[in-house]
């Protein structure tokens, strides 16, 4: 079973993906995590994307498709969870092509539906918690970048909802419940 988690920043994609990894032996492919790793380890690519990421804009399709292509060569175990990818129609087409090349299919695009006030609260809360715990917040978890990330979602990523609906793959779950409630809703889709 290969799935895509769709939803705006703060919808809970990463949290739910982590649960699926722990409980279903699936493999999480988060382009955001891959890009942060490149940025933190100071690779050439990491240096190139740092400013774009901190501002909350999208990195080029070419870079993220390249990252995903490399990871897809590994063993799929319980299946792949695409978390934060695809984010544009070009990425969605590229993913369909890569899966076809590998003889794999995408089973569901699961939308975590939330409202904007909750997102802003969650993200600013996540930043405040990180700081309170003595750490540092994500560079893009601030009000300014958040506005740009939300706009990138609505302009560039939300058309994917229609795209996957038309392919008969879209499943929408209520992302506003507790972690366990959302997990149960996703479980129903996967059953
Ligand atoms: P995330 O952790 O998924 O919120 O991603 C953090 C940041 O990484 C985003 O705001 C973008 O700058 C970049 N990024 C992650 N995934 C993608 C993607 N699929 N396409 C373009 N940019 C991405």
Gist of the model:
The chain has helices at 13-24, 31-40, 44-55, 61-72, 89-101, 116-132, 143-157, 159-166, 179-190, and strands spanning 3-6, 27-30, 80-83, 108-113, 170-174. The protein is built from 9 helices and 5 strands, in the order E-H-E-H-H-H-E-H-E-H-H-H-E-H. Residues 9, 31-32, 35, 52-53, 56-59, 64, 84-85, 87, 91, 140, 149 line the site of adenosine monophosphate.
Please explain how this structure is put together.
The longest helix has 17 residues, at 116-132. The protein has 9 helices and 5 strands; from the N terminus they run βαβαααβαβαααβα. Strands 2-3-1-4-5 form a 5-stranded parallel beta sheet, with helices on both faces. Helix 2 (31-40) packs across helix 3 (44-55) and helix 4 (61-72) runs parallel beside helix 5. It is of the alpha/beta class. The protein has helices spanning 13-24, 31-40, 44-55, 61-72, 89-101, 116-132, 143-157, 159-166, 179-190; strands spanning 3-6, 27-30, 80-83, 108-113, 170-174. It is 58% helix and 12% strand. Bound molecules: adenosine monophosphate (AMP). Residues 9, 31-32, 35, 52-53, 56-59, 64, 84-85, 87, 91, 140, 149 line the site of adenosine monophosphate (AMP).
- Share in helix: 55-70%
Whole-angstrom Rg: 16 Å
Strand order of the largest sheet: 2-3-1-4-5
Number of strands: 5
Which of globular, elongated, flat, extended, rod-shaped describes the shape?
A: globular
In N-to-C order, the SSE pattern is: EHEHHHEHEHHHEH
Bound molecules: adenosine monophosphate
Largest sheet: 5 strands, parallel
Low-confidence stretches: none
